[in-house]
Amino acid sequence: METTLYPMDNAAMPRHEFFRLVGTSIGVILLTRCTAGCSRQGNEDPTPSQKIDFTLRLDDKINENLLVKGGYVVADNIIIAQTKDGKYVAVSAKCTHQGTILTYKSVENQFYCPLHLSRFDTAGKVIVGPATLPLTVYSVDSNFSAGTIRVHN
Cys-Cys crosslink for 94: which of 1, 99, 105, 137, Cβ 3.0 to 4.6 Å? Predict the structure, then answer.
């Protein structure tokens, strides 16, 4: 059995052309991934038009952080925190930049994105970007005699 090779016109690609094509391809892939990550995706975040109304029991183990100043919990994509002044606040739990779950920093009295370091005040306003859109703020009614906190819009 014999292998037959057929002659090819211009079979070799110049080296600089090869690297230009590979570099362009990698650039397109990276740019596509970056723009996809920065776009608003259809996350299950509550929007201002959705009806939000739920109650947290403070005697539940999962909500015990709300009993201390500076403590917070995330429930139904909403972060509920007790400020250093003892007031309860609730905002959307996902950063408006890329949807990362926020944390509450009681020392600064701010919500903080651990991914790109955006910061929001307790009224949801952007303090430091890259986020540009504010957080959605929810009403909080505390009933200490019943040991509950109601979050609603």
Answer: 99
